[in-house]
Amino acid sequence: MQLEISVSKRTLQGKGASRRLRVAGKVPGVIYGGEGPAQSIELDHNALFHKLKLDAFHASILSLSLDGEREQVLLRDIQMHPFKQQVLHVDFQRIDRNKKIHVKVPLHFINGDIAPGVKLSGGIVSHVLTELDVSCLPKDLPESITVDLSELVAGSTVHLSALQLPEGVEIPSLAKGEDLPVATIVIPRGVAAEDAAEAAAAEAQSAAAAQKKEAGAKDDKKDSGKK
Question: pTM, whole model, 2 decimals?
Answer without folding.
Answer: 0.72
